[in-house]
């Protein structure tokens, strides 16, 4: 409380001193006015009445106006009029003449007119003072630093924000050249610019991409934006300069530019007029232009001429309904370098809402290398397709040509056994049976090879009900299942879109193998299950069979690979190779988990093509 009381005491003392000084001035002015009125009254008594001495009272009126004591003006004017009237009848009514009355009326009119004029002047001055106060209040309430400069470049006014921004007091600014607020390296040019502006004054708003800097009292420079407005006044032309510190914005812009330059793709920022406002280093490298050649140019500069006309319409349409457009949307787009070379590109677009309006960020990626690779892959695919057709044709012809002599050999062996079997000894009979069995195995191998080569040649996508598919497979394997007394179960199998024939062949091979490779004296049990993992279905075919050693888990999926003799288990060694090729066609993978004597669990994944099929249906 003590500092507060102390400050209040000082305040009261200052207020009291001010009032005392004001009262003293008022007393002095009133005293002088009284002296002059008395002097003029005495003078009027001494001078002949025909002379209008009363007009001298106007001097007192103007003296009060000169000292700006308008509050005493009417009182003193009334006093002067009273003095004129008293002076008229001072020598008695008989001394009053028409000339005296005319002079006295003239004096009263002069006093009244002078008083009215001065009161009107007082009203005008008060209006001007109120306007000046309003202007200064507006100036002080401005969010930016504002200085008022005359034609000589000197500061007439400055608001509080100027003091805060530059570190000067107003008393240090007013009357000084405005160049004191500018770095020395710009002073000479600025003086010329200032003179040119006063010759052709016009409002200039902020944000015109001018690189401007100001100087604080401590010598620190900082970036600014400045707007200029001419002010036509009675004192001549003045200029109001609003100054805004844009240090934070410049730092943010620098960070944005750094991020832009760190982007792996070429990036350009375009406004609604199609003008390039920003471009990163990758754009310069990709198109061969310098940054100064790009800024302000139309974006169509980076397009082949045959696309420029249509692109203007596409650009306007995008600004009317802006939305993010990612890369890789199947559009054939091309860019054009400075040297005229065209190249394929992918472009993503992102709208940017800014204070300056809507902008669009375009990321441009050169896909020349990818297109070359795609072309090479396309050529390889065509070549591979051609080779596959040749291979399929060769396999068909070879199987047909190979099976024909095998059937002949097998037929003649059967005829020999049938017609001459009784004439042959036991060794010859054994040899003939070997030849017959070998021919049958060779026929199975050739048929297996033909089936292997045809996998995927007639593939079509369709909706597959896997539960119904298992019913059909069980019927196909009914003889083997009954013979082996096997138990095949399944539950909650899905319906999805895939290659039906290939999936059926895959499950049938795995179930058939599970039944065939059972443990002696143990009833085969096979369980088929499935669950979804994202866009794929994972199937598991589990059995209680002989199992597989870990060292053979990869080998079993190779063609003609057998782990057992024919005497133990029949087969050609192609079945699991079939499975591997089918799973590749179905877009998945296949693997096995097994321990010898503990059964096996074959897992494979199949892609669900439902979305792909729906997309194709919508496009068609």
Question: Could you walk me through the main structural features you see in this protein, from its secondary elements to its overall organization?
Answer:
With 620 residues, the protein is an alpha+beta fold. It is 52% helix and 19% strand. The protein contains 18 helices and 17 strands. α1 (2-46) packs parallel to α3 and α16 (500-516) runs antiparallel to α17 (575-585). The longest helix has 53 residues, at 368-420. The chain is rod-shaped, with a radius of gyration of 54 Å. The model is unreliable at 1-17 and 564-569 (pLDDT under 50).
Characteristics:
620 residues, alpha+beta, five-stranded antiparallel beta sheet, 52% helix, disordered N terminus
TL;DR of this structure?
By secondary structure, this protein is α+β, with helices and mostly antiparallel strands.
Distance between the termini: 87 Å
Strand content range: 15-25%
- The total beta strand count reads 17
Protein structure class? alpha+beta
Mean pLDDT: 77
Unreliable stretches, pLDDT < 50, 5 or more residues? 1-17, 564-569
Question: Sheet bearing the most strands, described?
Answer: 5 strands, antiparallel
| Total count of helical runs of at least 4 residues | 18
Radius of gyration: 54 Å
Percent of residues in helices: 40-55%
Shape annotation: rod-shaped
With strands numbered from the N-terminus, the spatial order across the biggest sheet is: 2-1-5-4-3
Write the layout of secondary structure elements.
Layout: H1 2-46, H2 57-66, H3 73-88, H4 98-141, E1 145-149, E2 155-158, H5 160-166, H6 170-173, H7 184-199, E3 212-215, E4 221-233, E5 236-245, H8 247-262, E6 266-270, E7 276-279, H9 281-287, H10 291-294, H11 305-320, E8 333-336, E9 342-354, E10 357-366, H12 368-420, H13 426-454, E11 461-465, H14 466-476, H15 478-484, E12 487-490, E13 495-499, H16 500-516, E14 525-533, E15 536-543, H17 575-585, E16 590-594, E17 600-607, H18 610-619
Parallel strand pairs: 12-14
Antiparallel strand pairs: 1-2, 1-5, 3-4, 4-5, 6-7, 6-10, 8-9, 9-10, 11-13, 14-15, 15-17, 16-17
Helix pairs in contact: 1-2, 1-3, 2-3, 2-4, 3-4, 12-13, 16-17
């Amino acid at each position: 409380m003590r500092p507060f009381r102390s400050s209040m005491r000082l305040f009261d003392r200052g207020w009291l001193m001010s009032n005392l000084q004001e009262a003293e001035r008022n007393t002095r002015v009133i005293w002088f006015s009284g002296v002059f009125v008395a002097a003029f009254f005495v003078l009027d008594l001494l001078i002949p009445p025909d002379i209008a001495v009363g007009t001298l009272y106007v001097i007192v009126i103007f003296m009060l106006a000169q000292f700006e004591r308008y509050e005493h003006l009417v009182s003193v004017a009334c006093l002067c009029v009273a003095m004129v009237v008293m002076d008229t009848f001072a020598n008695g009514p008989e001394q009053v003449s028409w000339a005296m009355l005319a002079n006295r009326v003239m004096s009263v009119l002069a006093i009244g007119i002078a008083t009215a004029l001065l009161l009107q002047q007082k009203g005008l001055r008060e209006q001007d003072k109120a306007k000046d106060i309003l202007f200064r209040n507006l100036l002080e309430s401005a969010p930016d630093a504002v200085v008022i400069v005359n034609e000589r470049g000197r500061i007439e006014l400055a608001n509080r924000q100027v003091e805060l921004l530059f570190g000067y007091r107003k008393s240090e600014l007013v009357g000084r050249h405005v160049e004191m607020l500018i770095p020395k390296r710009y002073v000479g040019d600025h003086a010329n610019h200032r003179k040119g502006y006063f010759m052709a004054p016009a409002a200039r708003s902020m944000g015109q991409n001018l690189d401007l800097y100001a100087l604080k009292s401590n010598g620190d420079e900082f970036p600014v934006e400045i707007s200029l407005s001419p002010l036509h006044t009675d004192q001549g032309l003045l200029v109001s300069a609003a100054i805004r510190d844009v240090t934070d914005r410049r730092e943010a812009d620098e960070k944005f530019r750094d991020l832009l330059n760190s982007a792996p793709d070429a990036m350009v920022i375009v406004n609604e007029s199609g003008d390039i406002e920003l471009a990163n280093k990758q754009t310069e490298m990709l198109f061969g232009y310098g940054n100064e050649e790009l800024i302000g140019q139309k974006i169509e500069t980076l397009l082949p001429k045959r696309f420029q006309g249509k692109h203007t319409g596409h650009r306007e349409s995008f600004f009317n309904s802006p939305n993010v457009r990612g890369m890789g949307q199947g559009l054939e787009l091309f860019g054009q370098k400075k040297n005229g070379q065209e190249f394929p590109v992918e472009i993503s677009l992102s709208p940017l809402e800014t204070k300056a309006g809507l902008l669009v960020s375009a990321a441009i990626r050169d896909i020349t290398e990818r297109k070359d690779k795609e072309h090479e892959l396309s050529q390889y695919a065509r070549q591979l397709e051609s080779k596959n057709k040749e291979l399929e044709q060769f396999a068909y012809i070879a199987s047909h040509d190979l099976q024909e002599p095998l059937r002949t050999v097998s037929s003649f062996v059967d005829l020999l056994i049938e017609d001459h079997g009784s004439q042959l000894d036991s060794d010859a009979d054994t040899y003939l049976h070997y030849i017959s069995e070998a021919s049958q195995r060779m026929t199975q191998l050739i048929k297996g090879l033909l089936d292997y080569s045809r996998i995927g040649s007639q593939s079509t996508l369709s909706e597959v009900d896997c539960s119904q598919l298992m019913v059909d497979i069980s019927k196909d394997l009914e003889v083997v299942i009954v013979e082996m007394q096997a138990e095949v179960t399944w539950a909650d199998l899905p319906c999805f879109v895939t290659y039906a024939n290939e999936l059926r062949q895959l499950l049938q091979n795995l179930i058939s193998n599970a039944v065939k490779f059972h443990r002696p004296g143990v009833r085969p049990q096979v369980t088929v299950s499935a669950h979804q993992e994202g866009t794929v279905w994972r199937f598991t075919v589990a059995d209680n069979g002989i199992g597989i050693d870990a060292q053979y888990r990869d080998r079993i999926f190779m063609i003609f690979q057998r782990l057992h003799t024919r005497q133990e288990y029949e087969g050609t060694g192609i079945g699991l190779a079939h499975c591997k090729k089918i799973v590749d066609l179905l877009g998945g993978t296949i693997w096995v988990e097994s321990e010898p004597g503990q059964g096996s669990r074959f897992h494979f994944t199949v892609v669900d093509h439902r979305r792909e099929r729906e997309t194709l249906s919508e496009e068609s």
